[in-house]
Design goal:
alpha+beta; three-stranded mixed beta sheet
Length: about 70
């Protein structure tokens, strides 16, 4: 095996969105660095099953207006 080609593998702290943290090993940053998550299994809709429709009228209404008569040629 070649020497000095692999990144350093060390322990880092991971802080989840609710403030809980755990220690894991990673090649990210330096030993002891902290990774703060914006999205995690406790808050992401893919895991929680709760989804929010963020755009209630902007892009959806624009799409519907633009393609309202699409495919209705007589």
């Amino acid at each position: 095996m070649k020497t000095d080609i692999h990144p350093a593998y060390h322990e880092i702290n991971v802080v989840m969105t609710d403030g809980t943290s755990f220690t894991t090993r990673s090649t990210m940053g330096k030993p002891g660095d902290t990774l703060r998550l914006d999205i995690d299994p406790k808050s992401h809709p893919a895991w929680t099953g709760v989804q929010k429709l963020l755009d209630t009228g902007g892009q959806i209404a624009k799409f519907n207006k633009r393609f309202a008569n699409f495919g209705l040629k007589k």
